[in-house]
Amino acid sequence: MTIAHGIKKHLLVLSTGQHVGKTTTSLGLVAHLQERFSLEVHGTTTPKKEVAYCKPVGQQHVPVGGGLRVDKDSFLFKEHFGLVHDYKDMSPVIFPDGFTRDYIDGKVTAAELTESVRVAHRHLMDTSEFVVVEGTGHTGVGSICDINNAQVAAELGMDAICIALGGLGSSFDQLALNREMLLKHGVQLKGVILNKVDPAKLDMVQDYFSRALKRWDVPLVGCIPQLDDLSHPSMSDYSKLFHSDLISGHDAKLRYFAHVRLALAPVDSRNVFKPVPSQLVITHSGRGDVIDAILANQAEYRRRGENLHPGLIMTGWDHPSPSATSHAFTCRPRRATASNSRPRSPGSRPS
């Protein structure tokens, strides 16, 4: 993608449904564009205001302070990429509980919603070189409030790319339905990306799907193979989920695991804690026998020049013993450990 300096551009990222790959694709686009603009426009690796992100209509939202709630993906992009744009422009419309009823009752109008999106988009275009706009659900989501993805694209004069699940017949059928709504509103489909394609069928799917798209004169931009590892949460994900801090293994925060074990039984001569590669263990912070066994197994493997790639999540109200923490830090380059550091009330459940 060649982007000339000074030319305002934008693109709508759509998909044939939820959990198909819009956000993943948008993350990749923003990351790539930030790098391109940093290097080509400013000759530096510090991006300024060249790339913006917007989720015009959001269904799942989070509080960000000051009584403001924004779409969760807008929050993700702002935090992850350090975007400088205002939340009200990145997430102009959200659908809280009861919103569709309010719309049908006439408490909210289509003109108000459209104007909110239009104003936000104008602000982003005025302060950015490129705006990545992510749709919500499939192309028709939002129709009950007259603000579906195709209507948004038409209102803002955007072209679209569409993400579909890897396959042939059913994937093309779903794509055709979404394309019809784009055509109805005069929006051009500029390309298709297939996500989660069976690696064994990647070449075949790419060949046949490309040929099928020729009838629409739409290119197949790319095929992304199904990677099961991407669906496994990492230690960083667990840390965010439990609002906890990593106490060691910060360089392994992106480690994911093939096995998960909840360790409740005591470790003794009758119950030996056997080493299992790529295993995440969940146990109470007071279970020194379990923690010591995990650390001992990893230490033994390290002496042999090997690595178990383990992980440990400790629950409860108390921090682990100083000796366990000290030992964990000596293993820091090799393992990842998380413990909830927030104080809890006596009646609360451990994470």
UniProtKB/TrEMBL annotation:
Record-linked InterPro entries: P-loop_NTPase (IPR027417)
Chain positions covered by the region annotation Disordered: 323-351
The protein, known as: DRTGG domain-containing protein
Top-rank taxon: Eukaryota
Bias (Low complexity) ranges: 339-351
Extent of the signal sequence: none
Keywords: Glutamine amidotransferase
Nuclease as UniProt keyword: no
